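User: Some background: our group keeps a shared notebook of sequences we're curious about, and every so often someone picks one and asks for a predicted structure to add to the entry. Today it's my turn. The entry only has the sequence so far, pasted here. Could you supply the structure so I can complete it?
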Amino acid sequence: MTGAHVRKVVSPGSVRTAARLALAAALAAASMTASASGLDQLRRFLDTTRSARADFEQTVSAKPGRAPQSASGTMAFSRPGRFRWVYRVPYDQVIVGDGEKLWIYDRELAQVTVRTLDRALGSSPAALLAGDNALERGFVLAEGGSSDTLEWVEATPRNAEAGYERIRIGLRAAVPAVMELRDNFGRSTTLRFSRFERNPALDASQFRFVPPAGADVIGE
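Assistant: Of course. Here's the predicted structure to add to the notebook entry:
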């Protein structure tokens, strides 16, 4: 009929079919991310993450017969080269990279250590998260396999004086979940991240550091 409105009827079966297809596509995308290699996930994280923040728990291995040392706190970074690690338990320490210098403040000792950031960051664990994308300059990267529902990357510092034999980073869905560091003395440090938030808006002031009045400043 001319001028009549024609209403298209969509069957419930068609709606259910479309929903199933959308769900299948979403699951397939999630599966691709989950099954991607560690290196692929690390590169995706670096390519798509400009800033992040998270809580962390740190465990340092001890000599036989002694209990491991534990600590916890928060971390944030804004790439490249700006980061802040705050230890709250069992000691109060702040580590800040402001893009030019690395500041380490021990509140109990009232002491600040400062170093040039380029020298401090190059082959450090922070470079894996807060550095630029040219990781191969500072590390030899290799696949670390799958374990504990994570895909792992092994990073060996190119600088023999880096202080670490090896760093392993475990990723899930292209987000770091665990970092394991083995130093030149055979000790292992494990960092486990939680509440990891990618690309939050961060206040730039947290990446600046002014030594507190009365604190001793040591270094460059």
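Suggested note for the entry: The CA atoms of residues 11 and 17 lie 10 Å apart. The longest helix spans residues 12-35.
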